[in-house]
Amino acid sequence: MRFGTAMTHSVVIIGSGFGGIGMAIRLRQAGVRDVVILEKAGDLGGTWRDNTYPGAACDVPSHLYSFSFERKIDWSRRFPPQAEILEYLRHCAREHGVLEGIRFGTEVTEARFDEDAALWRISTTTGDLAARVLVSACGQLNRPELPPIEGRESFTGQAFHSSRWDHGTDLRGKRVAVIGTGASAVQIVPEIAEAAAELLLFQRSAPYVIDKPDRPYRDWERAALRAVPGLYALSRARIYALFEARALGFIRYPRLMGIMERGFRRHLAEQVADPALRAELVPGYRMGCKRILLSGDYYPALNRPNVRLVTDPIERVTPAGIRTAGGEHEADVIVYATGFRSTEFLSPMKIVGRDGRELNEAWRDGAQAHLGITVSGFPNLFLLYGPYTNLGHNSIIYMLESQFRYVLGCVEALRGAGLDWIDVRPDVQDAFTREMQERMRSTVWEAGCRSWYMTAGGKVVNNWPGYTFAYRRATRRPDPRHFRARRAAAR
């Protein structure tokens, strides 16, 4: 229908990664057909579209890093590579009829709740539209973080962020500087070390890197998955249980991480013979405080004669390279593997709720959302992969599917009860936030390190401090007592 000059839709979703595609599929399966996905890029896929750097792959096994309602039994490897994950998402969108509902090249600049009309009025780079329900599926890892290093713009060579990889830059025979040692870097370094004449890896703090038990699936394994009913589900359940067991060390008993730490040290000793280099690769914080990384070839790459680890603090970028306290390091190419602005969930969009309240202002001390999904003062707005829903130990797809069910319950409540809008009560949201912060104190994420899980003020707002099955139980259905509502007849 049209409301004024803008077309009004039942549901508008922002973003077409796993969250946006999966939510649209579940809505269609529930009979909600008028669903539009707004995507600022020219293709779907979210982080798996953006991160095309050499070696890009997932650190969650493929059987678990997929939707429960769209099985894929022919994964090529135990840990899926980027291109295969992206093609899986494209398949899901085509197979379930949501591809035609995606508006590519459409970036949302502002969404404002019209309380009288009970609509979200959405401004985009391609025009305006309106929605009864607005779902943000932007995720946490979509805005590249470039470090505030002096002189960055002065560099005369090629420079780019890992999530904006310049495939036109030939690294063969070049002096390549990689800044950062996070999840992207441990995949990039082994891939480009063979091509580069020299690779300089600038490390601010060493990560914990454990072995990645990756390998191609054998033909007989894929044949067995096709032939034996329930085998795929059993594999998925086994992986889930193994990963979920690790939550004890993350959320309840951080001292248990000492067991994994001993395994890390054995792995490091086996792969790095040089004691001086090995000492520089031992983190100075408790394992799990920052993201634990998986790789079987990162440490061997650091042993190569053309690879050098630089631990001196960076002072500035110069036209010819990077200057540290130890001197000048010349480079032809700089790769910023420096992560994302993960705590700025909906920025730079302007989101305005009831009484003109802006979301960025409401979140000035850190993002808050009940169950990571609903924000008080912003009716009929639902977040996917919002605050307190990231994981350190299991598959985010499992968390997303829990959120899909909760959002569907809210949409069905709106339709079934004839409501204009529902808005989570502020006391409910505040109680949830207090509980999260109280529980966070016993987790490994507050064991004394700085990480991308934290705001600038040092508050952990990204992670779920509990078991994933507990989150699923908490989101099994929306509780009407948690919401304020307005019936349609009151308009």
From TrEMBL:
UniProt xrefs under SUPFAM superfamilies: FAD/NAD(P)-binding domain
Domain of life: Bacteria
PANTHER family per the UniProt record, alphabetical: FAD_NAD(P)-BINDING DOMAIN-CONTAINING PROTEIN-RELATED, L-ORNITHINE N(5)-MONOOXYGENASE-RELATED
Name of the featured protein: Cation diffusion facilitator CzcD-associated flavoprotein CzcO
